[in-house]
């Protein structure tokens, strides 16, 4: 767009059907893309959503997962809080894996996406599984 001198805006939106809406986006005033030279950042959380990047321990064989926030710049699993679906219809085991009650942050949805915070902006860096999105 810059090469052709066009007056256009590019928007990157990210969300999950489990959150029923866009969770984060690049703000209207933009982001310093020099911080992200190889790919577009996911952006910043919308006002109605809480977004955390967490390390996940446990959660196998029906035991509850323990989530701990990572330090800024470290990668971890992206988790949403706020307006969320309640469960997967008739998939109790998957619901128990993906929706986790955090004593500090309330009910969170584990996206399976890996991300990190860079200068207050969320960058998606991969997946916890082999799913392609």
Summarize the structure.
The chain is mostly beta strands. The chain contains one helix and nine strands, in the order ββββββαβββ.
What is the percent of helical residues? Answer: under 10%
Task: Please give the alpha-carbon distance between the first and last residues.
Answer: 25 Å
- Series of secondary-structure elements, N-terminal to C-terminal: EEEEEEHEEE
What's the helix count? 1
CATH architecture label name: Roll
Instruction: Indicate how many domains the architecture comprises.
Output: 1
What would the average pLDDT be, to the nearest integer?
80
Please name the fourth-level CATH homologous superfamily: Luciferase, Domain 3
Indicate the multimeric state. Answer: single chain
User: pLDDT below 50 for ≥5 consecutive residues: which ranges?
Assistant: none
Note the overall shape.
elongated
The CATH class label is Mainly Beta
Which band does the percent of strand residues land in?
A: 35-45%
Rg over CA atoms: 16 Å
User: Would you give the CATH topology?
Assistant: Luciferase, domain 3
Number of strands: 9
Helix-strand makeup class: mainly beta
Biggest sheet overview: 6 strands, antiparallel
């Amino acid at each position: 767009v810059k090469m052709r001198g066009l007056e256009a805006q590019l928007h990157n939106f990210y969300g999950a059907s489990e959150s029923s809406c866009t969770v984060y986006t690049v703000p209207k005033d933009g982001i310093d893309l020099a911080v992200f030279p190889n790919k577009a950042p996911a952006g910043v959380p919308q006002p109605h959503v809480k977004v955390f990047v967490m390390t996940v321990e446990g959660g196998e064989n029906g035991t509850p997962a323990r989530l701990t926030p990572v330090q800024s710049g470290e990668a971890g699993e992206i988790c949403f809080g706020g307006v969320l679906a309640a469960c997967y219809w008739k998939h109790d085991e998957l619901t128990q894996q993906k929706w986790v009650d955090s004593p500090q942050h309330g009910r969170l949805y584990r996206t399976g996406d890996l991300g990190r915070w860079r200068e207050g902006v969320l960058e998606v860096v991969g997946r916890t599984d082999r799913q392609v999105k």
